[in-house]
Amino acid sequence: MDLRLGPGSQRTALSHRRGEKGSARWSRAGTPGAPSRLRVEMNDLISGGSIVNAEAVWDHVTMADRELAFKAGDVIKVLDASNKDWWWGQIDEEEGWFPASFVRVEPHPPQPQTKQVFYINPIATPRFQNTTSKLWVNQEDGGAEPAEGTSEVQNGHLDPTNDCLCLGSPLQNRDQMRANVINEIMSTERHYIKHLKDICEGYLRQCRKRVDMFNDDQLKVIFGNIEDIYRFQMGFVRDLEKQYNTEEPHLSEIGPCFLEHQDGFWIYSEYCNNHLDACMELSKLMRDGRYQHFFEACRLLQQMIDIAIDGFLLTPVQKICKYPLQLAELLKYTAQEHSDYRYVAAALAVMRNVTQQINERKRRLENIDKIAQWQASVLDWEGDDILDRSSELIYTGELSWIYQPYGRSQQRVFFLFDHQLVLCKKDLIRRDILYYKGRIDMDRYEVRDAIDGRDDDFNVSVKNAFKLCNKDSEEIHIFLAKKPEEKIRWLRAFHEERKMVQEDEKIGFEISEYQKRQAAMTVRKVTKQKGVNRCTPPSYPPPQDPLSAGQYEVTEDMAQGEVFEFSQSKRGQAPFWQNFSRLAPFKK
Question: Which Gene Ontology terms cover its molecular function (predicted)?
Answer without folding.
Answer: guanyl-nucleotide exchange factor activity
